Amino acid sequence: MRTLTAFLLLAGIGVQDTPQDIAKKDLPKSAHCVVCEAGGSAHGEEKPAAGVRYKGKEYYFCAAKEVATFKKDPEAFVPPVLPRPAPAFQLTNLAGEKVRPADLRGKVVLVDFWATWCKPCIEGMPAMQKLHEKYGGKGLAMLGVSIDEKGAKVVAPFVQKRKFTYPMFVDGGDDPAWKSFGVRSIPALFLIDKEGRIVKQWVGKPKEQEVEQAVAVLVKE
Fold first, then answer.
1. Cα 87 to chain centroid, rounded
2. How confident is the model at residue 16 (pLDDT cuts 50, 70, 90)?
3. CB-side exposure of 195: number of CA atoms within 13 Å?
4. Which overall architecture, per CATH, does domain 84-220 show?
5. What are the extents of the domains in the chain?
């Protein structure tokens, strides 16, 4: 007797846990590259160079080399489940004080992972400052989380020079927050609702209006 999994595969319903290559003749005329999108360098649709089927879904790539990257860790490129519980984390602010999720209970939280050497991160920070100024008094907790290895030593003067006033933190230690959130590239932005669930996330430089609309909806609830 065939197993259910074998039956589904024969029926064309892919539930396999191992990525299977899609024949070139079966590739679509255009598609998004899942690896580029996950890395924050999305470039729109184009003729895919390759594709794979994984757990019943199809994923495409702008270059054949991206297939190997996907196959090493497929789950890292699968679209995130939303909403989902935010991970436990601990952050240290520039004064050396700790903050934990319990300290933010009842607030809408926007976590922005960035670094002083990340150009798109820096370009997006004025928008984060505007959100802090507009919604900080309405229930939004804006958290800027630097992954700079030198920590507050480089982050503090950087923030002071640019006059950002929303709370800034340095990430590191044996269990960094970026790892708990599954961050693979920056900027990476996570929106957490009042119940502690991640309801939106963006990789790369997001559209300012899109982020604000998502924040505005949550602070009114």
1. 13
2. low
3. 8
4. 3-Layer(aba) Sandwich (3.40)
5. 4-73, 84-220
